[in-house]
From TrEMBL:
Belongs to the multicopper oxidase family. It comes from Capsicum annuum (Capsicum pepper). It is found in: Secreted, Extracellular space, Apoplast. The keyword Disulfide bond does not apply. Coiled coil: none annotated. This is Laccase. Lignin degradation and detoxification of lignin-derived products. SUPFAM superfamilies: Cupredoxins. The keyword Oxidoreductase applies.
């Protein structure tokens, strides 16, 4: 007899059961077996709806790919560019077996997943794991707890994430609706960059010379640059829509080094989620999205049926060169012939600081009873991190010097043994716990450009954070060589963006302007050019967690550090034991 009955409408296989029921009734009509069959069917659905285990196989391999009239071999997952989308539901367990057939070491980061107590599944090479060597495999095994929305995955070693990346779509728990109008359909839109040359060769050449590597040759939408580029008519992403229907676009910026504007000609976006956190909805003609960030928007197909371009182009409001080319894709109404020329949207100007600041100011947490904004109101640990570019000696480099980047004048040196393993197994000599809470020498951070005394300190220096303490980090841009916008990503956590401003942070005046009611919650935040951003989080996830600029150029130059969050009281607040197949260095 069935003791537990899962409500049919909430069951993961509700539609399947409904179809089976209909078939069973037809088969059993006018027979004495009807009662028996219905009883058996009801017992089948009496099982409680439990979290599923979603399994994926990722084969990291070298594939032949052609774009912009150039064919090359590059690293992919399962031969696809972008790689496969991971689909899961809140509460699921996900197991992804990554087998490395490429000639590079590999690790993959599941960007934005909190990995509670489970840093072993986080992915950054030499931070939480040693990389997966050629011919080896590793299973990333993690639970999706308390998160739903759009995230993404990418390689987290060298510049391999230029081609090794894909989307993560986490649906709400069964029976839980979106807190916004239900879309008719949805589409993943991943923004990226393309190099005609081998991106690893490009990176190595730049490092050998001590200067920035060559910039990308194109931007892409779902791996395709669009028809504004040569040899790209067949390399154009298009989505077919029907007039009157509403579409959810899950937009991801997987570009290595460019913040991007994104818009759709003649259509308005309604922003409803960023970094897998629901927002207060607002309308906008375009969005700004930094590397590492995700944005979900609703768009209604309410214009004259035709073909309309979606377009992505960089935002850069500092005197720094970027790949300023525009990637396009097509929003095509059903029944419209492909001979109709699409309309281009009007994107903000490349240096439109006002749009950037205004757009980011509109981002607010939904802060509803079901999705509260639990902002830390009191702070146990105050940190001030200054971002700087620098120049260090390099006898073999082009000018005898190498460009570097630093936090609090420290350029981070990657260890040869993973930090998390070193911490867990108490291996000495890998890192030091002396990363400073504030810059060693205060100065007018955003005044006239500073071009002398630009040498930085180097080391594998990280911060220790007490378990369950509340932390505020003020991330301050500086004019060392040049100001610039920097997207910062914290692994293992979301944080609340409680304040931001242009110029120097004023610890006496600026905290009074903080938003402690409904600040946006996210995992990657853009620090404005020549300005600052204040973030807060509760350190309730033990482990070693990477904190870095998500411009790959700056990460490679040392603009990164890590937090060692101590274990809490009781075994359920300690780091989980490492898996048996954890890669070795």
């Amino acid at each position: 007899m069935c003791l537990v009955l899962a409500p049919l409408s909430h069951h993961p296989f509700a539609q399947l059961f409904e179809n089976l029921s209909s078939q069973l009734r037809k088969m059993a009509k006018n027979t004495s077996f009807l009662g028996f069959l219905v009883f058996g069917f009801l017992c089948f659905i009496c099982l409680p709806a439990e979290a599923a285990i979603k399994k994926y196989q990722f084969d990291v391999q070298v594939s032949n790919v052609s774009r912009l009239c150039h064919a090359k071999q590059m690293v992919t997952v399962n031969g696809r560019f972008p790689g496969p989308t991971i689909y899961a539901r809140e509460g699921d367990r996900v197991q992804i077996n990554v087998t490395n057939y490429a000639h590079y070491n590999m690790s993959i980061h599941w960007h934005g997943l909190k990995q509670y107590r489970n840093g072993w599944a986080d992915g950054p090479a030499y931070i939480t794991q040693c990389p997966i060597q050629t011919g080896k495999s590793y299973v990333y095994d993690f639970n999706v707890t308390g998160q739903r929305g759009t995230l993404w995955w990418h390689a987290h070693i060298f510049w391999l994430r230029a081609t090794v990346y894909g989307a993560i779509v986490i649906m709400p728990q069964q029976g839980t609706p979106f807190p916004f109008p239900q879309p008719d359909k949805e589409e993943v839109v991943v923004l990226g960059e393309w190099w005609n040359a081998d991106v690893e060769v490009v990176e190595k050449q730049g490092n050998a010379l001590g200067i920035p590597p060559n910039m990308s040759d194109a931007h892409t939408i779902n791996g395709k640059p669009g028809p504004l580029f040569p040899c790209s008519e067949k390399h154009t992403f298009a989505m077919e829509v029907e007039k009157g229907k509403t579409y959810l676009l899950r937009i991801i910026n997987a570009a290595l080094n460019d913040e991007l504007f994104f818009a759709l000609a003649n259509h308005t976006f309604t922003v409803v989620e960023i970094d897998a956190v629901y927002t207060k909805p607002f309308s906008t003609e375009a969005i700004l999205i930094a590397p590492g960030q995700t944005t979900n928007v609703l768009v209604r197909a309410n214009q004259v049926p035709g073909r309309y371009f979606m377009a992505a182009r960089p935002f850069m409001d500092a005197p720094i060169s970027v790949d300023n080319k525009t990637a396009t894709a097509i929003f095509q109404y059903k029944g419209i012939p492909e001979t109709v020329l699409p309309k281009l949207p009007t994107l903000p100007a490349q240096n439109d600081t006002d749009f950037a600041l205004s757009y980011n100011s509109k981002l607010k947490s939904l802060n509803a009873p079901k999705y509260p904004a639990n902002v830390p109101l009191n702070v146990d640990r105050h940190l001030l991190f200054t971002i700087g570019l620098g120049i260090n000696p390099c006898p073999t480099c082009l000018n005898g010097t190498r460009l570097t980047a630093s936090l609090n004048n420290i350029s981070f040196i990657m260890p040869q043994t993973a930090l998390l393993q070193s911490h867990y197994f108490n291996i000495k000599g890998v890192y030091t716990l002396d990363f400073p809470d504030k810059p060693p020498t205060p100065f007018n951070f955003t005044g006239a450009p500073l071009t002398a005394n630009l040498r930085t300190n180097v080391g594998t220096r990280i911060s220790k954070i007490a378990f369950n303490s509340t932390v505020e980090i003020v991330i301050q841009d500086t004019n060392l060589l040049s100001v610039e916008s920097h997207p910062f990503h914290l692994h293992g956590y979301n944080f609340f963006v409680v304040g931001t401003g242009v110029g120097n942070f004023d610890p006496k005046k600026d905290p009074a302007k903080y938003n402690l009611i409904d600040p946006i919650e996210r995992n990657t935040v853009g620090v404005p050019t020549g300005g600052w951003t204040a973030i807060r989080f509760r350190a309730d996830n033990p482990g070693v967690w990477f904190f870095h600029c998500h411009l790959e150029l700056h990460t490679g130059w040392g603009l990164k550090t890590a937090f060692l969050v101590e274990d809490g009281p009781g075994s359920d607040h300690n780091i989980l034991p490492p898996p048996k197949d954890l890669p070795t260095c």
